[in-house]
Amino acid sequence: MIIIHSEEHRLQSGRSELNDGQLVPCYEKPERADIIRDRLAAIGVGPMVTPDPHGLEPLARVHDAGYLSFLQSAWDEWLVEHGDWDALPLNWVAPGMHRRVVPRSIDGRLGYYSFDAGTPITAGTWRAATAAANSALTGADRLRAGDRSAFALCRPPGHHAGRAYYGGYCFLNNAAIAAQSLRDNGAARVAVLDVDYHHGNGTQEIFWERGDVLFVSLHADPIDEFPYFSGHADETGAGAGAGATLNLPLPWGTDWAAYAEALAVAARRIGDFAPDALVVSLGADTYGGDPISRFRLLSEDFLRMGAALAAMNLPTLFVMEGGYAVADLGVNVGNVLTGFEGA
Ligand SMILES: NCCCNCCCCCS
Ligand SMILES: [Zn+2]
């Protein structure tokens, strides 16, 4: 399985995030990709290549033009206004307020285009985010060229980024960008399966009214867990996308036995949809040792996850999302890919 990875990921290296009332060092940090890269090299998953450039067009197929130009200029504007500190929002739209006019203020626009204060914009954010999107796009190119599978080692992650907003450590929705690229280049139907611990609210929003892209997500119940405001089982899509979203929320404490049951439901739904390709938003924060998550998967369960994904028998693009138990992240991600290949 080919691995696509850009060292430009390390340009995204925030100083701190606001988490549970404290400014803490960022959980989404460069070491995450380093330990995955080194582990995959050590176990010989496959050749590692750098991404091909794809320009802005594929990004604009998924994201709002105003949002993309905001992302490109936010740091420079912040620097002039506030100096060399991470750009973090402080004000958001509350119920009853209107998001009618885009503020001129950079502080206003940070809040206008985001949903949390845990996702610092820095000098290198735009370059890191576009490199991650190019990794996902290069993976989509490889599937189109006939590869059975590919792994886009993306950082920063993407599944919380919507058409016109960032948050949850995500700026560009790498998995959605890859799914759209597959659709634009011959795939009639594409399924996106999100196995990250957190609901893929951004991916859901992007394909909410689309019947050509099925979105399925297993995640911690948003009644208790970030991102809190989406991912309930009664959210099933709208318009042409009615029935093309399947959310499988799971309680805190979920172990592999329970997780595997939900994954089997997801597999059946994907099988019924009969897509030409599968994009897996691969977050490993379902791991019992994850510092910000509350499922109880063991490292060996990721082997089983990989085998279950392979059993769907689809061309599969893995796109890296979350996973914050850095010391075990390489083993856990490597286990998914080993389980997938070995099946
Ligand atoms: N106390 C909950 C803080 C959540 N912070 C954001 C988590 C983003 C995960 C991305 S996969
Ligand atoms: Zn997550």
From TrEMBL:
Essential cofactor(s): Zn(2+)
Residue ranges of every copy of the Histone deacetylase domain listed in the record: 28-337
GO process annotations (BP): epigenetic regulation of gene expression
Keyword terms, alphabetized: Hydrolase, Metal-binding, Zinc
InterPro entries in the cross-refs: HDACs (IPR000286), His_deacetylse_dom (IPR023801), His_deacetylse_dom_sf (IPR037138), Ureohydrolase_dom_sf (IPR023696)
Molecular function in Gene Ontology: histone deacetylase activity; hydrolase activity; metal ion binding
UniProt family annotation: Belongs to the histone deacetylase family.
PANTHER family: HISTONE DEACETYLASE 8, HISTONE DEACETYLASE HDAC1-RELATED
The protein's name in its UniProt record: Histone deacetylase family protein
Native species: Azospirillum cavernae
